[in-house]
Amino acid sequence: MKPTITVLTCLLLLGIARADVAEIESQFRSVYELHVGKQFREEVAALDAKYLGALERAMQSASQGGKLEDALVLREEIQRVKDKGPLPEQDDGVAPGLAKLRATYREQAGKLLAARQKAVAPIIEKFGVALTAYQEELTKAGKLDEALDVKA
Fold first, then answer.
1. What is the pLDDT of residue 24?
2. Residue 28 burial (CB < 10 Å; 0-12/13-18/19+)?
3. Residue 23 in contact with residue 11, Cβ under 8 Å?
4. pLDDT (0 to 100) of residue 100
5. What is the SS3 assignment for 14?
6. C-alpha dihedral over 134, 138, 144, 150, to 10 degrees?
7. How confident is the model at residue 19, as a pLDDT?
8. pLDDT recorded at residue 13
9. How far apart are CA 152 and CA 89, in angstroms?
10. Residue 124, phi then psi, degrees to nearest 5
11. SS (H, E, C) 24-63
12. With contact defined as beta carbons under 8 Å apart, do 6 and 78 qualify?
């Protein structure tokens, strides 16, 4: 079970009575990394490793089948993945086998992104509450320009 983050925890972590926006942002990044970021990167790395394995198997099969063009396209894709290059948005003109592998990758990556969004939503909400509380504190202290900065 993952630990939950409460508004009180955020406020205590932030030391909201003495915090500033940079500190709140720094704390948000720390909490995000602890509860979402690291796991997301690990899951993407695992997905990339599986994709790379599938590409290597497909290239071996194309090579053994004497399909030079397919093997070369797959070799280029393998290199793109190893170089951490972006996945092309379109699969126009690629071999059907590669298009299928990319479609599977995109589907799984989409699931990871959706899970990350779901995991980060409560963190964003709680930090929004912390920022609102800080803005209110600044306003009550007559620091209107600073409160406006927080609001922005």
1. 78
2. buried
3. no
4. 95
5. helix
6. -20
7. 53
8. 46
9. 34
10. -60, -45
11. HHHHHHHHHHHHHHHHHHHHHHHHHHHHHHHHHHHHHHHH
12. no
Extract the tokens encoding 137.
Answer: 């504190």
pLDDT digits (tens, 9 = 90+) for 95-112: 889 999 999 999 999 999
Give the model confidence (pLDDT) of 27-47 as tens digits: 889 989 998 999 999 999 999
pLDDT score recorded for residue 54: 98
Q: Please, what sign has the CA dihedral across residues 54, 56, 59, 64? A: negative
Residue 147 carries which side chain, given as an amino acid letter? A
Evaluate whether 16 touches 138 at the Cβ level (below 8 Å): no
In three-state secondary structure terms, 146 is helix
User: What are the structure tokens assigned to 130, written together?
Assistant: 């912390």
Contacts of 124 (CB under 8 A, 6+ apart): none
Residue with tokens 């071999």: 95
End-to-end CA distance of the chain: 35
Those residues of the chain that have pLDDT short of 50 are: 1-18
DSSP character string of 66-133: T-HHHHHHHHHHHHHHHTTPPPPS--TTS-HHHHHHHHHHHHHHHHHHHHHHHHHHHHHHHHHHHHHH
